[in-house]
Amino acid sequence: MAFIKINKENFFHNLSQFVHKTATKNSIGIVLKDNAYGHGLKLMAQLSQEFGLTQAVVRSYAEAQVIKPYFKHILVLGDHAIVDKQCSFTLNALEDIDTAQKGSTVELKVDTGMHRNGIAFDELKIALQRLKEKGLILKGVMTHNRSADELSSELFWQSKKFEEVKKIVKNTGYTHIRFHSFNSASALRLPCENEDFIRLGIGAYGYSELPSIYKTLALKPVLSLWANRVATRTLQKGQRVGYGGTYRAEKEMRVSTYDLGYGDGWMRSNRLKAFTTAENLTILGRVSMDYVSLESHQEQVCIFDNALDAGKQLNTISYELMTQLHPDIKRTIL
After folding, report:
1. What's the domain range around 28?
2. Where does the chain bind substrate (predicted)?
3. Radius of gyration of the chain from Cα atoms?
4. Is 33 a known active-site residue?
5. Is position 116 annotated in a ligand binding site?
6. Given 237, 243, 273, 330, which residue is catalytic?
């Protein structure tokens, strides 16, 4: 089966870049949702602990259960709030207050312009009152910036709106809670001293989707995808490869199959333009469920070592390319 290499040195390098911006490890929460962006949930939790991070962010309570041994506190973004001393739960709507278990620790999400999750700005005072009535412990108030990685001024007006949110919350009597809105792109663009907590996701794994006009940190990709040779054959000129015979050999050539396919989470489409691997090998014909074909007889080949570049070839983003890699693919630390 295909395998993934995790570059520990690059991961620690990326984390150090953000620690330098924030001046402390304690304000960083490593985002490990969706199998740590495809890198491996437990593996990246272990490395984060080794680096010295004490907080994490996940999507579900099931993910939180896996990584509890490695962190002091975990923020759960998308599950019902229950009493758990190690976890806080995001309230994405007023209804979440009603379903939250009394005594649970929560963080209230406010919609400042994303219009996806979070209570409306004009519901804020109502939400704060209902939190008290329900007996919930408010640990934080948060929002999410919709265009931090784009060349626009939207990040600034959303930040201004969040400042209004902070004033209302503080005036209601909540003075010892944390406020946070920064993801990786926000932290790259703006000073971090006013943020109590940084939700560090894609930047930790080596990527920035910011336009080149912005000066960003020197981030290094952490994940590389590899495949093993299964079989090799000599094709004669005119012979075709794979389902539908979409690739026709223009000369005699040595072609091998490798153990990676769309069943592993690799993208099937190879129609508009053939994908070229990190070693400048072209995938021949269609990607099948378990195999790709390459003009090579190497025992192992690197499919990609930079998800941003690979994503551009496949007309997608680094996030999608990495998160869809199957959890069963073996991941090892370099």
Report:
1. 8-205
2. 116, 289
3. 23
4. yes
5. yes
6. 243
Helices and strands in the chain: count of H runs, count of E runs: 10, 16
In a domain, 334, yes or no: no
**Burial class (CB within 10 angstroms; exposed 0-12, middle 13-18, buried 19+) of 231:** exposed
State how many domains the chain has. 2
User: How confident is the prediction for the chain on average, in pLDDT?
Assistant: 94
Burial label for 185, CB within 10 Å (0-12, 13-18, 19+), is buried
pLDDT in tens, 121-140: 999 999 999 999 999 999 99
Residue where the block lists tokens 């939207």: 154
pTM, entire model: 0.94
In 3D space, the residue among 19, 1, 28, 43 whose CA is nearest the CA of residue 222 turns out to be 43
243 is catalytic: yes
Residue 271 marked in a binding site: no
Regarding whether 96 and 243 lie in a shared domain, the answer is: no
Which string of b and e fits 103-127 if b means at least 16 CB within 10 Å?
ebbbbbbbbbbbeebbbebeebeeb
Identify the three-state secondary structure at position 197.
coil
Same domain, 262 and 169: no
